[in-house]
Structures are given as C-alpha cells and as structure tokens.
Amino acid sequence: VAKHGKYETRPFDCWQKYKEAINKHWQDVWEAKDKGKPLIVRSGEFAHSLTAGLPDSADFQEAPYSQTMAVNREMATELFEDLENMGYRDICSAMGLSLASVLTGRGPHGKLPRPDFVLTVQVCDVEGKIGQIMAEHYDIPHFFVEVPKPVRGAKGQQHHKYLASQMHDAIEWMEKVSSKEWDDEKFIDGVRNEWQTYALWSKITELNKSIPAPLSQKHMGIFFLPAVTAGDRKWVVDLFKMGYDELKYRVDKGIAAVANERCRLLHEGLVPSYFLRMFKIAEQYGVVFLGSEVYFGLGGAFSASLDGSWVASETPEERGIELRTRDDAVEALADLYLHHLPLLDNLVLATRVDDMLRRIEDWHADGVVMHFDRGCHGLPSGMPDCKMALDRHGIRNMIYEASNSDPRHFSEAQVVDCLQAYFEALDLTRLTE
Ligand code: SF4
User: Can you tell me which atom of ligand 1 is nearest the CA of 95?
Assistant: First the structure.
C-alpha cells in the first residue's frame, strides 16, 4: 500500500448548493400539481430529457427518493414492514422504499400528489414492474421504453433504431395523455443539458484519479444525485460546471478529500444509505473510497473500450453534431443511453470483470470492498466472478452483505469488524479517533 503523507483538506464551497439543488427538486415535484404542472413518475432514473418537451413538468424518481428516506433507519424499517404486510417481498430495496412511501402516504415530504402518468425507461427489469404497480395504484396511464443491452462490441444500428423509435412513440403518447402541446425547442435544450451534465460528471470522476483524491465516495451520493433527478435542467448543468471547477482547483492545489490519504479503495455496489459511518471509520485508517462502477456510471457519460477502460465522453456539440430537430435530439439521447453508459453494459456481465480490473488500475486503487446487496438484483450479479479475478491478481478485497436501503438486512457490528480487519490486513493502523 502506497503511503502518501498528510494533505490539506477543507469543506466544499459548492456542497450547500448541491444540497439545495436536491431539496429544490423534491420541492418542485411536490408543488407541481398545485401549480398546474404535469407530474410524472419516472420509473427508472434515465433519459430525463425525454419529458423535457412537456414544459414545466416535474419528475418523481423512485430510487433517488429512497436514498433520502433510507438514511433514517427507523422510518425505512417501518416502511419495509408495511410493504411486506401488503404482500411485496424480495423487491428491489431502492425502488421498494419509494413504493412503500407512495402506497402508505408516509415519507419526509408526506403523500405524493396524484401524478398524471408513469414513464418507465427500463434498464433493470424491476423498474417496469414498479412502474406498473404505481400506475395501477393511481389508475393512471403507463408507457414503457426498453433500453436494449447488447454486449459491448456487438451494438448495431438495429439497437439504436429500436431505442430511438420507442422514444418517438413515447413523445407522441405523452402529448396525447397529458393534453399538452409538445415543445421541440425545450426538448432539444433538455437533451443538450442532459448530455452536458453527464459529460461533466464523468470528467469530475476522472479527477479522482489524482493523488490525493479530491472527492470521497462519501460525497458522491450527493454530488451525482442532481444528474439522475434533473440532469436535463440548465441549473443542474451550471451546478456541475461549478462542481467541476472547484474539484479541478482542489486537484491543482493538492487539496484532499481525506487528509491522511494513504490507501485508495473502490466500494463496488451501492453504499447502504443508513451506514455512512463506514466512511468515518475508513478515514480513521487513512482510507479514501474513490467511487465505483455505479457511482461513476450513473449520471456519467463514458466511452468504454473492450479492454475495460472508461474515458469521459464528449458531448454531441463537442463532436461537431448540432441538435436542430426532434429527430436530432432523439438520436443524441439514444446514443447517450446505448453507447455512453457502460454501467448498463455491465448488467449483462460480459465486461464486468475487465472493467473492474481496469478501473483499479486507472484510478490507482489499492483494493476493493464489494457490497453483496440483498436489496438489488442487478449490481451484485457478477461480483463473485470479480472476487475470483481480484484474488487471482493478488488484489486485496473484502465483501459484506447488506441492503442498500433496508436496514433489517444489516449487522453493523459484523460489517465494522470485517472492515477493520480488512484495513489491518492492508497494513493500516488507526490514525485518528
Ligand atoms: S439495479 Fe438494483 S437498485 Fe437498480 S433498479 Fe435494479 S434492483 Fe433496483
């Protein structure tokens, strides 16, 4: 394990702005109906700009909303028990917590006002199913867009056409069910913004290749959230530009996320939202968590190669592609989700091991902690293969079982013991209390 000494650290100037952006998003959602705006359930937090042509609409996304609830163990536990009493078991815990909130009317913002329709852009199968339950609960229409997931290297025009044609159908359908006129200018702006937000997030994650890392995974849950809730809005693009500039400044000045950084780890899988204490324990040992497949890839646009490398993508404009018409915007949006979200490639597993090995090399990581998440049916798949590959390559790793949002599947004492033993196996001693 490399020893890198002690670095300057300081709070983020833009931190408060990110928190305000997240609060603003949920406020917009809860106030939409009172203000006469369409309220849309987005089952699956993808392709936000697909609704941007309905002016002033607000999108409610289940998984990000769960994240705000799962920090409160007591509330999360009660909601999961309510959900099970209603007959829903073994469901994705990130989506399930929001479903429980909708069905019971309980949550930090209270009852969700009745939405106008559900739009699923499905990457993981769960998203379509939860969207269906939501639509049936409110008795509202539901449209479903399936994002094809061919193996990397086997993506063809047929996949692109399939996704783009569904997006065109979705636009016509939304216009019909909302009785609102579709605004192509706003749609094009939304796609442009979404691309910019995603490109900026990928550039931000690349800054974490620097030693010391300017950003801890502890902060990433907040830093990427506006991208996956409202990435198609101009104010989110501006926020991410501000975030990028501040982090670049920190890299240039050697300002660290963890003052005693001496070991760099990836945390693969979602961090349990109710166990952010993990980062404090890591910092006591001089460990910084750099991010992972899902923290880089959700809200980030990358060009991925067959050797597993991810490089921040250029926006269509940066590549000389102008967006002038609805067709152009649909093409650009389909391109983003088909060719620039390698996170989605890895749901079919073929590239997952190579991507992880390359990520370790490119982000200068010393090891990997993997969360075998009982609350997720997508991200833990392939982790046993990753573990075997890490062992073969002599890369120290640790696994633990929990659930990203359901605290009932978590033994804090056991996971803390494992973490401390793992850090000690990496020859780290505790530096601070
Ligand atoms: S990938 Fe996991 S967390 Fe995301 S929707 Fe699927 S099951 Fe839920």
Answer: 8
SS3 76: helix
Ligand 1 pocket residues where CB is under 6 Å: 92, 94-95, 124, 126-127, 376-379
**The amino acid at 328:** D
CA atoms within a 13 Å half-sphere pointing along the CA-CB vector of 426: 29
How would you classify the pairing of strands 302-304 and 310-312?
Answer: antiparallel
- The dihedral through the CA atoms of 149, 155, 160, 162 has a sign that is negative
Dihedral, 178, 182, 186, 187 alpha carbons, nearest 10:
90
User: 94 CA to middle of ligand 1, Å?
Assistant: 7
pTM strictly above 0.85: yes
Strand ranges, E, within 5-72: 8-9, 39-43, 58-61
Q: How are beta strands 8-9 and 255-256 bridged, if at all?
A: parallel
Q: Which of 31, 327, 341 is nearest to 187 (CA)?
A: 327
- Dump pLDDT digits (tens) for 393-408: 999 999 999 999 999 9
Q: Which two tokens mark 213?
A: 């890392």
Q: Which phi and psi (to 5°) does residue 216 adopt? A: -95, 155
Query: What's the confidence (pLDDT) of residue 5?
Result: 61
Output the CA–CA distances (angstroms, integers) from residue 125 to 25, 47, 115, 156, 171, in the order listed: 26, 16, 22, 22, 22
CA of 423 to the centre of ligand 1 (A): 29
CB neighbour list of residue 2: distance below 8 Å, 6 or more residues apart: 211, 262, 263, 366
- Dihedral angle over CA of 48, 52, 53, 58, nearest 10: 110
What pLDDT digit, counting tens, does each position of 243-275 carry? 999 999 999 999 999 999 999 999 999 999 999
* Closest ligand 1 atom to Cα of 377: 7
- CA atoms of 224 and 240, how far apart (whole Å): 9
Protein residue with least CA distance to atom 8, ligand 1: 92
